[in-house]
Amino acid sequence: MQSRMRIKGALIGAVFGLLTALAGPGVARAEPTAATGDTATAGDVTTVGNVTGFEADGSVYRFRAGAAAARVSFVSAETFRIELAPDGEFTDPTGDDIVLAQGAAPATRWKDRGDRYDLSTSKVTLRVHKSPLRFALYRSDGTRVWSETEGIGWDDERTTQTLARGAREQFYGGGMQNGRGNTSHRGETVEVSVDYNWDDGGHPNSVPFYLSSAGYGVFRNTYAPNTYSFTDPVSASARERRFDAYYFTGDAKDVIGQYTDLTGKPFLPPVYGMEIGDADCYLHNANRGERHTLDALEVADGYLEHDMPNGWMLVNDGYGCGYENLPETAEGLQDRGTQLGLWTEDGIEKIGDQVRAGQRVAKLDVAWVGAGYKFALDGCKDAYKGIEDNSDARGFTWAPESWSGAQRCGVQWSGDQTGSWEYIRWQIPTYAGATMSGLAYTTGDVDGIFGGSAKTYTRDLQWKMFLGTTMTMDGWAASDKQPFRYGEPYTSVNRDYLKLKESLLPYQYSYAHEATKSGVGMVRPLALEYPDDPRASGDAAKYEFLSGEDFLVAPVYEDTTERDGIYLPKGTRIDYWSGRTYKGPTTIDDYSAPLDTLPLFVKAGAAIPMWPGIRSYTDRTADSALAWDVYPQGDSSFTLYEDDGVTREHRDGAYATQRAEVDAPVRGAGDVAIRIGASKGGFAGKQSKRPYQFSVHTGSAPRAVELAHKLPRLGSEAAYEKAASGWWYDKDDRGGVVKIKTRPLSTAEPFTLRLDGTSAVGGRTPAAAATLSAPRGQEIGAGSEGTVAVDVTAGTADVTDAEITLDVPDGWQATPARIKGRIPAGRTERVQVAVVPAEDAELGEASVTALVRHRARGESRTAVQRFAVDVMPPPPTADAWASDLDWLRDTNGYGPAERDRSNGESGAADGRTLTLAGKTYAKGIGVHADSDIEVYTGGRCTAFTADVGIDDEIDGYGEVAFSVEADGAVVWTSPKMTGASKTVPVDVPLDGARHVRLKVTDTNGSKTGDHGDWAAARFTCS
C-alpha cells in the first residue's frame, strides 16, 4: 500500500511541477490537480504525506499535505524555522517567552524543481521534497548539511523528525547533561526535561537544542520534554502533537551564536559574581542551632582573616530559614567587600524591598520549575529584573532546572550533590558540555552540599576556579565547608587557588564580555576549538576542558598524586607550574600532581591579562598595575575588556578595550615585541595611566629590554621588587621568565616593549632542556633522616654541571646534590637528595619542588617539578589496637569515623559503645559505608585480627561488605552482611605489608543503617 502511494505521489508531483514552474520572490500559490496528501501510518505513528498545496509570501513559505500544514520562515541567511501542524492549525505555546524579536527577514527566492521546491537565501537552500513532504538542507555550494530520511511523524504523545547520520558526524547539546556533554553524544540518547536528578546521568537545566559537526544546529521551540537519539538515523522528538524547530548553519561557534541571537545572549555578570560565593542559613538553622542573620558577618570576617576572596553571600540558604536585619547585614557585608544574596524559596514578591535593602544576588529554588518551564523561565527573568528595577546593579541570579533563554538572566547550577571523588569526575564534562548549548555560566557547589572531605574540597575548588562562577555551601553538611575550615595544608592551597582566580579576573571577565557578543562561554570542550581532531570529541578529552582558548584544565578526580591520560591537542602547550613545553597532539601519563597542583597547561602564544597581588577586585585602585603573562610564539593577540564591573553603564557604551599583540619567533632564538595598544573607550573609574608588569616566558635571557629606551637590568629578585621600573631574568622560575616593570604609562597612548636576543617560549634550544620527574610512592619518616629520589632526564643535548635543590615545607631540611660528569642526551640519572622532615611534620602527603640548574648546548638552563612524598608516622613496634594508631586516611560515608565507638551521627565522638550481636567491645573502629581507613604498618606487622559486623544500634538495618587490603592487594573479604548477620571473625596474615586499608562498602545501593564495626581491631607487630 505504501509503495503504491509513493508511485502515485511521484506521478502527480511531476504533473504538479509542470503546472507550477514558477519562481519567487513574491506571493505565489500553486495547487495540484489531484489530492496527494495521503499520510503513512506505521503502528500508531502517522507520517506526513505528499504536498497538496504551496504558498510563498516573501520569506515565509506554506505547504499543505492533506490535513497537515507546514510553514518555513527565514530569520536570517543561515537561520530558518520549520513548523508542522498535523491538524493544519499552527500553535506556539512559548509565545515570546524564549524567542526574541528578530531583525528584518533576509531576501529569499524559490524555484519549483518538479519533484521538490528549493527555498534559498544567499547562504543556504532548503529543499522541500513533495512526495512525501521531506526537508533537506544544502549550502550555497551544493553540499548537503542534513536531510530527513522520512517525513515528520507524530502520534498521540510526540512528534518526531528523523535525519540521516553522517559517517563521522558528532553531536553536542541538550543543555546541562550531568557526566557528559563535552564529548560527542554520537550513539547516545539524550533526555531534555526536568528530572530533579542532580547526580551523574541527570539532566538539570536542560535545553532543547543540539548541534552537529556536520555544520548545523536545531532548537525545538517548545516547553515540552525532548528526546534526542543520535543513532543512525538520528531521531529527535518532543512530547507534543506539533512540530516547531529553528535551524542554524555554520561551524559550532557560528551555530551557538545564531541560537543565542534567537533566544538571547548570555548576560554579563558583575565582577563580584565571578568571585566565589558563600551560602548558608543563619536564622532558624536546623543543622546549626539558632543563629542570627548578622552572624553572616563573622563568616565574612573569616574570609578576610584568611586573606581569601568572597564576592557574595546567601544568608538564608535553607528551607524555612528566613532572615532579619537585612539592611544592616547588607551594609556589613559591603563594608567587607561582599554583596548580599538571598535564596528565593518564599518567592520573589518582596524582591523590590529586598534589593532596596541591599540584595544583589537571587538564587531560585527548584520550586520555580513549577508546572512546566515557563514558570522557571519567568522566575529567572523576574528575579533578574527585580534587581535591576530597584538598584543600579546588574541582575545576577542562580537557577536549577531552567530552560532555553535562561542564559540571558542567570547562572545554571547543577543542584544538591554529595562531595566525593566521583562528584568531581562527572562534573568535569558537565559544564564544558553545557557551553555547547549557549549556557555560558554553569557550575556546582565546591565539594557538594553534603559529605565531602578536606582533600576532595581542595581538589574540587582548584578546577572550579577556572569556571566563570562557583560557590561553596555550608549548612547542609556535617560541618561548615568554607575554604578556611580544614587547616593546613588545605587552607593555604585553597587560598592560593582563590587568589589565582582573582588575579585572572581580567582574562575571565574579558571572556564574559565576549560571550555577550558571540554566545560562546569561557568554559569549552576541546572539540569546540579543535573540531578536526577526532580525539577531542571522544573519551581521550572527556575529563578536561578549556578555560578560554589559553588554559587547558585536567582536574584530578581520584585520590592520587599523579594524573594519567591528559590529552593535549595540536600545538605547543606549557605546564603552568614547571614551564615544561609539550608538543601536541600527545597524551601525558604519570603527570605529577600533589595536592597543591592542578594539571594546567597554557597555549603557546598566550598573552593573559592579570591583576597582580590582590585579594578582591575591591582592592584595585587608580594606581594598581595591570600585568600581562606572555608565552611568546609566533604572532598572537588578546583584547582586554574593562568596565566599572558592577553597574549597567556598559550597556550604553561605558567600557574600554585594549589590545595586546605579541610578535615572536615560531621556535627558538629571536627577538620578542609586545605591543600594548591604546585603551579605547571610557567608563567611570577608568585609569588614565597605570604601571604595567610583564612575565615573559622565554627560557632564555634577553640581551636587553627596551621601552622607548633601554630599561635597567636588575640583579636580584629583591632589587626587582624595590624598583619602580626595570627588568630581571629569573632563571629559576618555570624554566626562565623575563620579569619587567614599567612606570605609570598613559592608557591613551600605545607602547611597544622589545626583548632583544631572546627566544620563543621554551628557550633558544627548547628540546635540549632537561626535565625532572620523581618515582611515585616515596615515603619518609617525620623527624628522621632520609632521601628523596629525583630523576633528571637530558633532552637532545648532554647535560652538564647539574645541581639539584629541593624546596621543602617549613621546618624541613634538604641538602643540595650535584651530579658528577654529564648525563648523555636522552638518558636519565636518578639522584638521592638528603632530606629531614620536621619532627611535627603533618602525616600524609607533602608537596616538594625540585629544581635542577644545569648547562645544555652551552646555555645555562633550569628545570623545575613539583611532586609528592608521603610523611609516615613511626611504625608500630609491638602489638597495637587499630584505633590507637595514626590513620593516613579516614574516609567515611557519614560523619567522622570513630575510635572506640560506633559511627553515631554527623559529629565527632557521638557514637555509642561498640556492640555486635549483643557483645560489647572497648576497642575498635566505627564507620559508615562507604569507608576507608588506612594504617601505616611499615613492614613490622604479621597479622590483623578483628570481629566485624553492623552495630546493634541500627536494629537490623544495613547491608555491607568488609575487606582488608595490604599494599594495594585485597587479602580478605567478608560475605555480604546485614544488621541481622552473625559477627564474622577476621584473622589475616600481613606478611610484612607496609600499608593496610580497612574498607567497608555498601552492597545494596542504600546507605541506610550501614554502620560497620571493626571491633577489637588489632595488629600483631614486632
Automatic annotation (TrEMBL):
Keywords: Glycosidase, Hydrolase, Signal. SUPFAM superfamilies: (Trans)glycosidases, Galactose mutarotase-like, Galactose-binding domain-like, Glycosyl hydrolase domain. Residues 892-911 are annotated as: Disordered. One of its GO terms (molecular function) is hydrolase activity. CDD domains: GH31_N. The keyword Translocase does not apply. The keyword Signal applies. InterPro entries: A-galactase_NEW3 (IPR018905), DUF5110 (IPR033403), Gal_mutarotase_sf_dom (IPR011013), Galactose-bd-like_sf (IPR008979), GH (IPR017853), Glyco_hyd_98_carb-bd (IPR013222), Glyco_hydro_31_C (IPR048395), Glyco_hydro_31_N_dom (IPR025887). Residues 876-1021 form the Glycosyl hydrolase family 98 putative carbohydrate-binding module domain. Belongs to the glycosyl hydrolase 31 family. This is Glycoside hydrolase family 31 protein. It comes from Streptomyces salyersiae.
